[in-house]
Amino acid sequence: MKSEDFAYLSRMLRERSGLYLTDDKGYLLESRLTPIARRRGVADLTGLVAEVRRTSSEDLIQEITEAMTTNESFFFRDSAPFDNFRDDILPELLELKAHQRKIRIWCAAASTGQEPYSLAMILKEQEAKLRDWNVEILATDISKDVVEKAKVGLYSQFEVQRGLPIQMLVKYFTEVGEMWQIAPEIRSMVTFRPLNLLDSFAGLGTFDVIFCRNVLIYFDQDTKIDTLNRLSEILPRHGVLFLGAAETVLGVCPRFQPIQNKRGMYKVAVEQPA
């Protein structure tokens, strides 16, 4: 790939999605964008870049962006965050919000839906405790295609084997040909919509819990800082932010502080930086 083509695509992806590509990631562009070039009838990425420059096609730019954003996900991924949510955070919220009887959760990079559906199944298992409660799960992703897949809740045998306990599969899924579809009662607990994390969070309201896992690792430092700062503005003091195991706010955003002995869990700092 020509260096100027790499620079153009890298800059475009950074502006559109926050994705930061180092100079050694040319192979990633080649592997993920070559199929788009072929579908568009151009020989290589040079031709694809030329078409983007010539047409400024928003559809093509979106297709390129979606191809480059990672949609790796599986049920109850890493297990500990879900255990902590069920065993620690949820009981605290039930006590703290007993008068309001309302809980709001946001999965900010929901991919094909396994994360929000995992939370929905946990909440369904606590149905007796949550009777007469209003529990909202908002799930967003930059990719419209994966959001549509998530809404349907249809997964392959491979996908349901990744992290999903067999008792949950039997209880909440129906076999549809060679696929498995999650129950309507679970699907109805989650609202899906496309959202780019670089865009404003205005209008989303505040949340008691935000899962923003395994997405900040793809951002450069400035974008991480900006995203975390804006997340801090929609979390109240009792709220909890879950990040991925390889992510941290330390040295990035002083508006958050780690929850002691809970890796990847953060609360808004009591003393905010000037």
Oligomer: single chain
Instruction: Assign an overall shape.
Output: globular
Share in helix: 40-55%
**What is the count of β-strands?**
10
CATH architecture of the largest domain: 3-Layer(aba) Sandwich
Largest sheet: 7 strands, mixed
Short description:
The chain is an alpha/beta fold and about 270 residues long. The protein folds into 2 domains: about 5-70, Chemotaxis Receptor Methyltransferase Cher, domain 1 (Orthogonal Bundle); about 80-270, Vaccinia Virus protein VP39 (Rossmann fold, 3-Layer(aba) Sandwich).
Question: What does this protein structure show overall?
Answer:
The structure is a single chain. With 274 residues, the chain is an alpha/beta fold. It folds into 2 domains: 3-68, Chemotaxis receptor methyltransferase CheR, N-terminal domain (Chemotaxis Receptor Methyltransferase Cher, domain 1), CATH 1.10.155; 80-268, Rossmann fold, CATH 3.40.50.150. Helix content is 43%, strand content 16%. The strands form 2 sheets. Strands 6-2-1-7-8-10-9 form a 7-stranded mixed sheet. The protein has a 3-stranded antiparallel sheet with strand order 3-5-4. The longest helix has 17 residues, at 80-96.
